[in-house]
Amino acid sequence: MSDLRDLYQELILDHNKRPRNFKKLEDANRTAEGYNPLCGDKVKIYARLEDGRVKDVSFEGSGCAISKASASVMTESLKGKTVAEVEALFKRFRDLVTGKESSEADMGKLVVFSGVCEFPTRVKCATLAWHALAAALQGKDEAVSTE
């Protein structure tokens, strides 16, 4: 188990240091901002939604390693998914990081955040980008806060 945790920690550190899809998406048709006042994390999500599917998604922002890595892995996990699939994955991710009963099957790299449930103060860091994405997909203009 320790080796697995080390591997997970390595992946989170890698995504924090070299976040994927960390850029403004010029042709985005959905955007939303999120803020976690507890940790100071800020994120802006850009999404290109076409025919009910996430064609592309990216983010910009600053924050702790968990927040940035979560946004990075999230953007890698969502391209090509329908809005309903994204919402279902968000629910499963939230269940995973809060320690609720959740299947890790088909979650891909998102499983690395399973250890977050041991640190309740980090749950908001891990879910910030997801909340902002949900607001973007719903077309909400106001900034999302984890409080």
Helix content: 40-55%
Count all strands and give the number. Answer: 4
Strand coverage percent = 15-25%
Radius of gyration: 14 Å
Taking the sheet with the most strands, its summary is: 4 strands, mixed
What is the subunit organization of this protein?
single chain
Ends: how far apart?
Answer: 33 Å
The mean pLDDT is 91
Structural class: alpha+beta
Give the uncertain stretches in residue-range form. Answer: none
How would you describe this protein?
The chain is an alpha+beta fold and 147 residues long. 41% of the residues lie in helices and 20% in strands. It contains four helices and four strands, in the order αβββαααβ. Strands 3-2-1-4 form a four-stranded mixed beta sheet, covered by helices on one side. A hairpin with a 4-residue loop joins β1 and β2. The longest helix is centred in the N-terminal third of the chain and has 16 residues. The N and C termini lie far apart (33 Å). The mean pLDDT is 91.
Give the SSE layout.
Blueprint: H1 2-17, E1 30-36, E2 41-50, E3 53-62, H2 65-78, H3 83-97, H4 123-137, E4 144-145
Parallel strand pairs: 1-4
Antiparallel strand pairs: 1-2, 2-3
How would you briefly describe this protein structure?
The protein has 147 residues and is α+β, with helices and mostly antiparallel strands.
List the main descriptive attributes of the protein structure presented here:
about 150 residues; alpha+beta; four-stranded mixed beta sheet; 4 strands
